Amino acid sequence: YSTVRFLHFEGLPASDLTISALVNGQLSIAASSTSPAYVQLYASDGRMVLNQKVNQGYNYIDVRHLAKGVYVLRSGKITRKLMVN
Fold first, then answer.
1. Inter-residue contact 81 to 71 (CB < 8 Å)
2. Which SS3 state, helix, strand or coil, does residue 1 take?
C-alpha cells in the first residue's frame, strides 16, 4: 500500500483541485470547477513529464511509468511536491 497524501488547491482561477497522491500508481485528482484546468508534473531535473487536462469530477492519471523520486506538481500559480515511490 502507498501512503495517501491529500493536497487541496485553493484559489485557482480555473478550478478547485483535490489530489490524492499516489495510490497503486494512479494519481487521483478531483476538480470541482466546471472549467477545465491543467496539471503539470516536473521531474527533479526540471523536465516536464506530464501535462494533463483535468475536467470536473474525478480524473485518474497513470504515473507507474515514472521513476521513483520527488516531483513538482503545478497547477496555475500553485506548486506542491509529490513523492513517487
1. yes
2. coil
CA 80 vs CA 15, 34, 38, 58: distances in Å: 16, 23, 14, 19
**Sign, Cα dihedral of 38, 77, 11, 9:** positive
In 3D space, the residue among 66, 34, 36, 28 whose CA is nearest the CA of residue 50 turns out to be 66
User: Which contacts qualify for 15-21: CB closer than 8 Å, 24 or more apart?
Assistant: 15/54, 15/75, 15/76, 17/54, 17/75, 19/73, 19/80, 21/73, 21/82, 21/83
Give the Cα separation of 58 and 47 in Å (integer). 26
Give residue-wise pLDDT tens across range 22-55: 777 888 888 877 777 888 999 999 999 999 998 8
Give this prediction's pTM: 0.72
